[in-house]
Write a structure and sequence with these properties.
Structural class: mainly alpha
Largest sheet: none
Number of strands: 0
Strand content: under 5%
């Protein structure tokens, strides 16, 4: 569960940077 929370926070932070977010989305 902690891993999921970490990924969620990571995605939330990446949202600020469209470029990084695009990489996360694949």
């Amino acid at each position: 569960m902690k891993a999921l929370h970490k990924m969620y926070r990571l995605g939330c932070t990446r949202l600020s940077t469209p470029e990084s977010n695009s990489t996360d989305l694949g």
